[in-house]
Amino acid sequence: MIVYGIPNCNTVKKARTWLEENGFNAEFHDFKKKGITPEKLNEWCNVFGWEQVLNKKGTTWRALSLEVQQRVADQKNAVEVLLQHTSAIKRPVIEVDGKPVLISFNEAQYAAVLK
């Protein structure tokens, strides 16, 4: 299991705590330090939809120029923006056996999918 995110994100902290308390041993991938590939972002977009992977509620998105925001109308443009602004990736993303299975944190969803 791999948890993708950034360590100071409250949602990532909640997810990691829940995983630990429920006996899951997860590797952590800090995409601020280790980066993220366009292939990985496209894989997540193919599973969850680019609209889910792009966090439009966060401060990173709101800080982008209106021109950049308006350019994001499809997966290709979303991935380009996310590669430049990794903090706009909704997090965490949980992969099990190399497959993305969860995005964000919802305790009931985690319990249903992982137990």
Automatic annotation (TrEMBL):
It holds the Pfam family ArsC. It comes from the Bacteria. Belongs to the ArsC family. This is Transcriptional regulator, Spx/MgsR family. It comes from Pedobacter africanus.
